[in-house]
Amino acid sequence: MPDADSRHGPLDPAPDAGWTDARPRMGFFTDTSVCIGCKACEVACKEWNDVPGSGLDLLGMSYDNTGALTANSWRHVAFVEQPRPAAPAAGALPGASAAAGPQFLGMPGARPPGRDTGAQTRSDFRWLMMSDVCKHCTHAACLDVCPTGSLFRTEFGTVVVQEDICNGCGYCISACPYGVIDQRRGDGRAWKCTLCYDRLGAGLTPACAQACPTESIQYGPLDELRERAAHRVATLHERGVPQARLYGHDPTDGVGGDGAFFLLLDEPEVYGLPPDPVVTTRDLPRMWKRAGLAALAMAAAAVAAFVGGSS
Amino acid sequence: MSAPHRPVGDRFRRYRTGRGGGEQLTVPPAEFTSYYGRPVLKPPVWKWDIAAYLFTGGLAAGSSLLAAGGQLTGRPALRRAGRVTSLAAVTASAYFLVNDLGRPARFHHMLRVAKPTSPMSVGTWILTVFGPAAGVAAVAEAAPWLPERGALGVGRRLLPGVGRAAGLVAAATAPALATYTGVLLADTAVPSWHEAYPELPAIFAGSALASGAGVGLLAAPCAQAGPARRMAVAGAALELWGAHRVETRLGLLSEPYRTGAPGRLLRAGRTLTAAGVLGALAGRRSRLLSGLSGAALLAASVATRFGIFHGGVASARDPKYTVVPQRARVDRRAAQG
Ligand code: SF4
Ligand code: SF4
């Protein structure tokens, strides 16, 4: 059982969970600046992990017809269509562009926008793509709250559901601050990315990272990935992309940093990510304290009600 | 049990079109960005069973306190009504809890571990102590019906004592049973539940006391109902204080508790609680008025539980409640340097 101090702050999760022979912590670095939205990762994940299909469904909002991470989509490629130029005017602050939000720009014609109608009618827009996945949090709320022990920490520091234990109570689903883990309809159990636990054990690369043609999804020891990511951000800033920023890389954030982190080109909420997720169990001692006080008040009220005379 | 398969897009479209109904917002709509208006969090998969569980669990706790009080102060009507209600309610709550699992047959996996970081695990263990105790106490009420002689005659002589002990065990566990559910809801990422963590246990404790008092007012003759009246006042005070706080203290996150169906439920809960307490105080000599106010208190407890439950669900469905407060936090930190 984790000690009181391991509920937040930086730590190496596998040894903290009691692995004496823990391996180096493995993770994903997803560099969205090179993602081309091909969805090879979504497909590879489904194939390898035998994830059922969700049926043909057109969401009618963008090229993204997956919509979100679900029990049946453990990778989700988001398509953000923004009416704004890829490179901001000189002097614009990173993040200052976040107000407009995504907007559907219509299906493209055979020729580039504005080609036939003249430059004046051209709109400035850009597409952001991002392959989202379970974050394998350092302090994973899903794991903390699971009452069956079905969710566990692996020797690689990742978070996995044991499907033969999960009884479908759904607690993990409400606890995940990223909205990742989900109940499968007709099955009742909770499912999410395992970071290809079976492949890791065999020394292989997870299916999504293996399939990614642009190396947008990179897999490796987390320390190494963090270094690589810092480099990449510096390079992008040099090249005049000041919006580039990392998300989920910081071991001092609300979840103790993520085992899967991202390079984004806009604010996290633009991609459907929470701006400042916090592991819910950080406040748990205070919650139990409040519950204790309420319980005492309740007992005292009951006693007082009976000793107070007979009318 | 589970809904027929629907394409995933349908599930999301529902979130997008379900919002912006006629309700007048008391907080101005917040400017924020999101991914096509989709929820950031997964809304709880818990169905109405869990709201019903919250009510029946509270009722079981409240009525077992009533029963223990009746037992210790010689008010047999309160004792009997409390014990029987407590058993019925805890049986119902166990049913609701198991029924809501995606795999109900695997309920026993809850007993594999005891995890203080999981309020659901803690609650399961509280229930496994409380449930049998409440059951034995209720069964002991049947002692006078047993024959005087033979093996059952032994039971007739032993049961009352066993029942007294069991009743006290149940009453000792009752406050934990009533309040842990506040932590159960608060220990999630659901914005309006999580931020309400200081108040939820108090609301549930108050609501449990008031519903236990309701049982006493319904079942006991006026001569024995005095403690139930006082329990009703104390429970109502706790419940009203807590509900008022969550409806006003949380800024944007109070909004889901004031608008839409949860808002209506909580308002109904408040009105019924007030009516129940007034009736309890005015009806000292009227069996009918006491009974009516008992029913009002029970109904109030149902309304409050469902209101709190659905308020949280609404806050998880709309990305606004996730993004805006977190964004404000980030900006505050950035401003502080
Ligand atoms: S992102 Fe959610 S599901 Fe994944 S480890 Fe973190 S809390 Fe668990
Ligand atoms: S749904 Fe399954 S994995 Fe999630 S908390 Fe419940 S038992 Fe654990």
UniProtKB/TrEMBL annotation, chain A:
Binding positions for [4Fe-4S] cluster 1 per the UniProt entry: 35, 38, 41, 212
Molecular function terms from GO: 4 iron, 4 sulfur cluster binding; metal ion binding
UniProt cofactor note: Binds 4 [4Fe-4S] clusters per subunit.
Biological processes per GO annotation: cellular respiration; formate oxidation
UniProt cofactor(s): [4Fe-4S] cluster
Binding site for [4Fe-4S] cluster 3: 134, 137, 142, 176
SUPFAM superfamilies in UniProt: 4Fe-4S ferredoxins
Residues passing through the membrane, by range: 291-309
Residues where [4Fe-4S] cluster 2 binds: 45, 193, 196, 208
UniProt domain 4Fe-4S ferredoxin-type: residue ranges: 26-54, 125-156, 157-186
Alphabetically ordered keywords of this record: 4Fe-4S, Iron, Iron-sulfur, Membrane, Metal-binding, Repeat, Transmembrane, Transmembrane helix
InterPro entries xref list: 4Fe4S_Fe-S-bd (IPR017896), 4Fe4S_Fe_S_CS (IPR017900), FDH_Electron_Transfer_Unit (IPR051555), Formate_DH_Fe-S_su (IPR014603)
Residues binding [4Fe-4S] cluster 4: 146, 166, 169, 172
Name of the protein described by the UniProt record: 4Fe-4S dicluster domain-containing protein
Provenance organism: Micromonospora carbonacea
Automatic annotation (TrEMBL), chain B:
Highest rank taxon of the organism: Bacteria
Membrane topology: Multi-pass membrane protein
Subcellular location per the Swiss-Prot or TrEMBL entry: Cell membrane
Broad class of where this protein is predominantly found: membrane
Keyword Zinc-finger included in the entry's annotation: no
Gene3D superfamilies referenced in this protein's UniProt entry, alphabetically: Formate dehydrogenase/DMSO reductase domain
Keyword terms of this UniProt record: Cell membrane, Membrane, Transmembrane, Transmembrane helix
One Pfam family recorded for the sequence: NrfD
Cellular component aspect of the GO annotation: plasma membrane
Family: Belongs to the NrfD family.
Official protein name in the record: Polysulfide reductase NrfD
Species annotation: Micromonospora carbonacea
Name of the coding gene: nrfD
